[in-house]
Design brief:
single chain, about 220 residues, alpha/beta, six-stranded mixed β-sheet, two-stranded antiparallel sheet, 7 helices, about 20% strand
């Protein structure tokens, strides 16, 4: 039987929730060029993959954060997954915005967290770690006790790992960049030259520029 990280990586590539284009990079919201783009909302259209993620996230929460009282999805990508997990665990659900709503109550947290409640964050993908940390701070300021976060896909950037360790925020992931790269190479989605390019990008994503493209000042 395949390990969860390998099985999920295969499925994410198969449904194009992870796209690899070393020769035609994507532009991230951070301004980085990237040979990979991850859209895990795509998994919601595939019941088998959606259910796998829900079941495994719920299992990991029960095994690692058994006293969790509230499930908090990080907006916007993890709202649906968080709600599915909360429903399967019969737990209250909230979602956390990165910026306040610009009208009405201007909420950062949609839903009800009571002071002292133990909360697990649900995130779809972990890149810089900034969203996780913002939500950790938001929930903590509202009086919640954040036990940790469960993430579908981890880019395994050192910047995120260091920041989350400093914050003492435990992170559990379903699959990750290194596993995805092995799966893509073994399955013929990419060749060795592509894999080398992806590794070069991964080692310095802020400054990486694809061959044939010019850096923008």
């Amino acid at each position: 039987m395949k390990n969860l990280d390998t099985l999920l990586a295969q499925k994410l590539i198969q449904i194009n929730a992870i796209k690899l284009q070393p020769d035609s990079p994507f532009a991230w919201a951070t301004g980085w060029q990237s040979p990979i783009y991850t859209d895990l909302r795509m998994t919601l259209s595939y019941p088998e993959v959606r259910n796998l993620i829900k079941v495994e996230m719920a299992r990991l929460i029960m095994e690692n954060f058994g006293d969790a009282q509230v499930i908090a999805g990080i907006a916007t990508g993890a709202i649906a997954h968080g709600a599915l997990v909360a429903d399967s665990l019969a737990k209250p659900f909230v979602y956390v915005r990165s910026t306040p709503k610009d009208h009405g109550l201007e909420n950062l947290i949609e839903g009800d967290i009571k002071p002292g409640q133990k909360v697990v964050l649900i995130e779809d993908q972990l890149s810089t770690g900034n969203n996780c940390l913002k939500c950790y701070n938001t929930v903590s300021e509202a009086g919640g006790i954040v036990l940790g976060a469960v993430v579908i896909y981890d880019y395994q950037f050192s910047m995120a790992s260091k920041a989350l360790k400093r914050a003492k925020l435990p992170i559990i992931t379903l699959t990750n960049f290194e596993t995805m790269l092995d799966v893509a190479l073994d399955g013929g989605t990419i060749n060795q030259a592509d894999a080398d390019t992806l590794q070069q990008w991964h080692s310095d994503p802020e400054n990486w520029v694809a061959a044939g493209f010019e850096a923008v000042d």
